Amino acid sequence: MKNISLAIVCFLFSTVVNGQQDSNKTLLSKLDMDYLETLTRDVMESSRIYPRQKISDDFGSNNTGIVLIRPGGRSSYPAYWIRDYAMSIESGFVTTEEQKQLLLLTAKTQCDQTWISNAGSMIPVGAIADHIRMDDSKPIFFPGTYDYHEQGGKTWGMTPPYCDQYFFIHMAYYYVTVTASAKFLLQQINGLPLIDRLEMAYKVPPTRQDSTAVYTIDDFRGVDFGFRDVITMTGELCFPSLLKYRASVELAELFELINRKDKPHFYKTIAASLKHAIPRIFYDGRGMLLASTGKSRQADVWSTAMAVYLGVLEGDQLTKTCQFLCRAYKGGWLSAKGNIRHVLTIDDYNDSTAWENSLVPKNRYQNGAYWGTATGWVCFAIAKADMNAAKQLAKEYIADLRGGDYRKGPEFGAPWECYNKDTPQNAVYIASVSCPFIAFKKQSLAGSKIPLKNSKKFRVQ
To answer: How far is CA 227 from CA 219, 365, 370, 399, in A?
Structure first.
């Protein structure tokens, strides 16, 4: 009996110690992670628009015949936004059938003929919509409107945003990942195989002739990333170049799956080029990456954290970056209520604006408000320098969600899209929980990459 009791004690002690060690390696406690998982699941459900469902008197019903997923619940953003959805699919709360139908809808609305809108903006062949209307499935390629004919204009870009093409590729990559359906890449959509449509999309964002980084100028400007579509940036652009890096890696793997031996090396070479070029072009010496090299050439928290998250930064640069983000957090320049600014408060362009060129006042929306979307990426980076600091930031984020949880009643709205100083904007916003949840899961897996399931087994012969 004594030996049995001793064995039980040793087992229990081992369990406690190992549990403490595991908790020391994760950003959230199991209780908080379970809470965030449930909240993300519920927000995802609130974001669904079912066939024939009407969510606003200002818009028609969902006539697409499929379940759409919009950026949030209640009455905001009554359409299907590609990037918000693509940034949320790894949460695990989108069924494979929903993924398939949304991927097909995105592919079917891809631009097959270059055209110019009444507002004077050009939509090039291969472009992917910014958002898609639910009443008639019309693709809207520019922010700021639901008008198919009048979309675009200098305010919103002379070409569509540069991010959605790469998010389209990520959607396809993830669908193949979870279904192991490599043959789906060969499915004909409006006369072209899906894999060809992915490659068309990849080629849309422009570069300099001698560079692989995404590049723009005023006359042909496109939004760099939809989470700052009211900010004007020119020159080489960091965030879409990071997305291009990931898309290059993903395309290489997809082409390998269908035995296209002429393609993988090409995309792997571009990925390697971008991994080298991004720090060289954008690194500011302190540890931050600049958003661009032209207008709004400022240190960008989101690009910096994303570069760590995607594994683009390495060695001394990685160490320096994570230490600087940690210092920014401890200095109070980075976050509020666990939500993240695009620009550190010490890096504001001047007293009147955070970014050099903005359509909105300082400390509002994308020009200095605080967002939950980037919290997971930032925590992921800070954890490499100071796990306790990263845990504290994550704890502040969860505490804010718990305090304002929209499930408490109509007067509550968390997760909010962002905080304009202390005033929240747009309730029940999906990216504010889905992106952190995905990042916290990744961190708990020690940053391991989700593999393609039995990829060799499912190659197309």
So the answer is: 21, 9, 12, 24
Q: Taking a C-beta distance cutoff of 8 angstroms, is the pair 88, 415 a contact? A: no
DSSP 132-171: E-TTT--EE-STT---TTT--BTTTBSS--SSHHHHHHHH
pTM reported for the whole predicted model:
0.92
Backbone phi and psi for residue 411, each to the nearest 5 degrees, phi listed first: -80, -5
The tally of CA atoms less than 13 A away on the side-chain side of residue 155 is 9
Residue 123, pLDDT score: 98
pLDDT under 70 in the chain at which residues? Answer: 1-23, 446-461
Span 311-325, pLDDT tens digits: 999 999 999 999 999
DSSP label at 125? T
Q: How far does Cα 79 stand from its chain's mean position?
A: 18
Which amino acid would we find at residue 404? Answer: G
Question: Which tokens go with 179?
Answer: 């279904």
CA pseudo-torsion sign 131, 134, 137, 138: negative
Q: Which domains does the chain have, with CATH numbers?
A: 28-444 (1.50.10.10)
